[in-house]
Design brief:
mainly alpha
Length: 306
């Protein structure tokens, strides 16, 4: 594994740890202070401001006018549709349903990568994806005492749309990630997403009573904007440059694991035998996908055999 791959794995590992911590924080903000539309707007607009501020201290990178169209499309799939549909879906369905649907992301990414990037679907890759998905489902269900099918069908579908949008973003627009720096790309992506979101969020944001919000609310929102949005979307392109899309999304399975560990630390959950087995399945699934062969590797082997 070269330095680029190490950095990519570390970037995506850090991203999903941040996302895992973000889950309970976002849930609290949604329950106590902000509506789903308001929170989504603040994530987009806040990250947009930070990315543009950071870009002022970096060397200006010229983006071709033609590529701005593709950056706009990437922002629609990677930010606007992804974030809007998930947070709205989460408000309509149960957290356990949403967490289980997240396990579809690597599966969808594997299929979309096959269609867009011609990445092969090997038995090893498929086995690793489903092993990790199974471990995540077991982990989620082991901490849930209720009816799994209790979520609203529209909420489930919106969460599924979010996963599909993210899978398309990671695969169809990978060439953009390889072409431009993360800051140059993200400042435009978040600007486009923020502008498009305004007609949907303006009324909700205008009703927020900022004066009555306590300091803890602002600190939590700051974590969501700076940590779970700016930092993660800065790190994701680093992972995209060094990892195949399916490998990258396999790290999504760590999010409920991180959330569970936090719950255990604060005495809100326990980590028994079943959760341990689930965690092993998740890590093993990620490892198997990492070891599966890419299209380039298979092409080299085919050339050697002929």
């Amino acid at each position: 594994m070269n330095d680029r791959n190490y950095k990519a794995h570390l970037a995506i590992l850090t991203t999903n740890i941040i996302f895992g911590i973000n889950t309970p924080i976002s849930k609290n903000v949604l329950q106590e202070y902000l509506s789903p539309f308001s929170l989504t707007f603040f994530r987009m607009a806040g990250a947009c401001v930070v990315f543009w501020l950071v870009s002022l201290f970096m060397k200006t990178e010229k983006i071709k006018p033609r590529d701005l169209l593709f950056i706009f499309l990437a922002s629609m799939f990677g930010i606007f549709i992804n974030q809007f549909s998930f947070i709205q879906g989460l408000s309509l369905t149960t957290p356990v349903n949403a967490a289980i649907i997240i396990t579809c992301t690597p599966i969808m990414t594997m299929i979309v990568s096959f269609l867009f990037l011609k990445e092969p679907i090997t038995f090893k890759k498929a086995g690793g994806v489903f092993l990790g998905a199974s471990g995540t489902v077991i982990l989620v269900l082991s901490g849930y005492s209720g009816t799994v099918g209790a979520g609203n069908i529209w909420g489930n579908l919106l969460c599924l749309v979010s996963s599909l949008a993210y899978a398309i973003y990671l695969t169809a627009f990978k060439w953009l990630i390889d072409k431009y720096s993360p800051v140059s790309l993200m400042k435009w992506m978040f600007l486009f997403a923020t502008i498009v979101s305004l007609p949907f969020t303006f009324e909700s944001v205008s009703q927020v009573n900022f004066a009555e919000m306590p300091l803890i609310a602002y600190l939590q929102i700051a974590y969501i904007v700076v940590g779970a949005t700016f930092t993660t979307y800065l790190l994701i392109p680093i992972g995209q440059k060094g990892l195949r899309p399916t490998t990258l999304t396999m790290y999504n399975y760590l999010q409920p694991l991180v959330t569970t560990i936090i719950a255990v630390i604060f005495g809100l959950d326990t980590f028994g035998f079943v959760k341990t087995i689930a965690a092993v399945m998740i890590f093993l699934g990620v490892y198997i996908v990492m070891k599966s062969k890419s299209r380039a590797q298979l092409e080299i082997e085919n050339k050697k055999s002929t």
